[in-house]
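Homework help thread (please don't just give me the answer)

Our assignment gives two proteins as sequence + structure token strings and asks us to describe the second one. The first is just a warm-up. Here they are:
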Amino acid sequence: MTTSCTGSAPGEGAAGGPKPGAAGVGDRLFPALGNGGYDVAHYGLTLDYVPETNRLKGTAVITARATQDLSRFNLDLSGLHVRTATVQGSEAQLHRNEDELLVTPAKTVKDGETFKTVVTYDGTPRMLESDDGGLEGWIETDDGSTALGQPTGSTTWFPGNHHPSDKAAYDIRVTVPKDSDGDPYDVVSNGKLITEKDNGETVTRHWRTEEPMASYLAHISVGHFEIDKAATDDGLPVFVAIDPAESGEAGDVKVLVPEIIGWASERFGPYPFSSTGAIIDHLPELDYALETQTKPYFGEVPDETLLVHELAHQWFGNSVTPRMWKDMWLSEGLATYAEWLWEEDQGDRNTDEIFEDFYNGTDTESKGIWAFPPADPPSGGLVSDPPVYGRGAMVVHKVREAVGDGTFFDILRTWTQQHRYGNVDTRQFIALCEGKSGKNLTELFDVWLFGKKRPPRM
């Protein structure tokens, strides 16, 4: 590995000359996440992991297109030791600045050029803990580990452009040893299982995600799982992995996953990915589930409502992804409203009753929903707080009231179709609601989405 200082190269920054890519994408809530100057198309991650020692060795092949003449660019990486890096086959100079890896290629990468960066690295991946005790990153479990990426945890196990605005396809190959009894560890990841190879003392599994995926949704779980493979009535592969410690109570999940996918497809439009499923691990200290693409992750057996929420994210959040973290209500509010729709369709409370329970504070999930406007979290640490979920769902319900059911469900299906595999912001959602309904909804959004206080009930 060679290193360089952070100063500019001769001629760098001159008018019309190559410039460094920005260290960040201008996200107010997470200014250090993501990088400018390039757009990633594909990650090829080849990993060797030993659960007993929690040691990881990796090679990341990052295929990207330059969006400017690049003299240097950044990759996000938290912890781990970088051994080498090449750009277009030539050794690159490296400099580490905390969670930023600065890469200076031997030759300028031209605007519009597709280029390949190869980074080799190793070490003990970090688990990140927030001020409120929330866990993310690379988390050890009782028989292996799991990688959870929201909002910054994906930076702990591979280098890349770790912001939701830069989605890419993935090939993830993981080699793990067999345990002391000679049984191979299972490896579950996003997408489809392409190959599974027994190397004698180790096993290698290759998972592929062809549809674009935000890095915070990339996932690996290593451990011992009971694997159930099935298919929906439409032939969609269903892959459910259950930790044996949770299997006694997880039987309903295998039935519910295809049922919920079918229900949501009728409500929100065709399922956007080539496989589905769920991962139920044994990690009871985890206080949340995550909508990891194609297979949501649960630290224990989820209830029906939580399963609906995370599977609804495959449409809202995973296929249609917020461009900036402040727009996360478009993901969480719509997924929460999917819970309300499911409850209504099951013959329990209808959505009007649920809305009233949230407004009055009698629903168990309504605490704290008036703390800030859903579309304007004050800090990055609050993007998963109650206003983004519960009050976000209330905004959706007010839109439904204002435009009527026919137009409302047309809006949802159009939203998932027009922005399939893309990134969105709040402005686009408002424009679609107004365009489909022919109504000026400024007051509705000003009061319910952007208002700082609990609105008076009309």
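The one we have to describe:
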Amino acid sequence: MASADQPGPRRRRRGGWLARLVARPGVQDWVVRLPFGARLARRDGAEIFDILQGFVSAQVLAALVELGLLERLLGGAEPPDVLGPETGIAPDRMAALLQAGAALGLLRRRRDGAYGLSRKGAAILGVPGLTGMIRHNRAFYADMADPVALLRGEAETQMARFWPYVLGQTGDIPPEVSARYSDLMARSQRLVAQDTLRLVSLKAVTRLMDVGGGAGVFLAEALRRHRGLRGVLFDLPGVMPLAEAELTRAGLADRVALAPGSFRENALPRGADAISLVRVLYDHDDTTVRALLASVLEALPPGGRLIISEPMSGGARPDRATDVYFSFYTMSMGTGRVRSARRIAALCKEAGFVGIEGPYTARPFITTVLVARRPDGDRCKV
């Protein structure tokens, strides 16, 4: 039987005749002679080429970031013959890079041949953690160099080596590896925290436990917004020093209890009336997710809430950001997968949660949120 997000055999066959017709070269030659057909052909051709050159566009952005050109151009426009020598790049090649950046809308070309920063280019610098993620994508793109090998699982990926905790390697992870992971996540987590807390109210929550909370970015944002709230941060022991330092800098250490542990090996602490899983589930396979949801249910009191926030598949309506970028990103990690809100809700229901609400989203490429509740009284199956 087909799943909720997968069309059945009969639905898959619908429209096949049209695809086969459009795929005939002779039909394409005929279509472009028609007024409306020419417009469609141009549009389809442009969109196909945009997909084709997408990797090159991403690498142009990576070069601008790696060379520090976005920051440099904050001070004003510069010509290629100035920027080239400063970065060890021949002026003609620097001109090609800057021209490409302008074509992508990241830079502006002036009449005198100098290039300045556009609004979109400046926005990249204003998004916390974005330049770090662009640099980090070097490993991801290396894994995508042979997408068929990735899909077949034929080789160890760089991403799996970068994220050893996903494969359950908790006891022997060097502190510097845990810190590297948490630092990267912390820089990108602020937007996730802001969007999540716009979508979900914590006014009735007195104690929030963030599982897999890293440096405590989400928890800190929640505590700043709700002065009566107290928090618990549960994550690997190697992450705790970073979290303690971050929460101390934020002046929130006295409101947070640090609980080192692995949700694979340890029961979650009790006492929180809400538990958050922010960008956690999509790191793991269904077996691990089922076990984690069961542990969360057991840790919550009757009526306690679970908040899940992460990029989610569009399911029956494929989403360009989550079903392309995040789907393959989690695949290259080794065990991760992007799930639809419907699939996550089904896993929550299977674990025993009720009152599942959502999905809520402002920017699906940042996060989507689901909220569920532990049943009251004897209805809970633990």
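TA reply:
I won't write it for you, but here's a hint about the kind of observation we're looking for: Confidence is low (pLDDT under 50) at residues 378-382.
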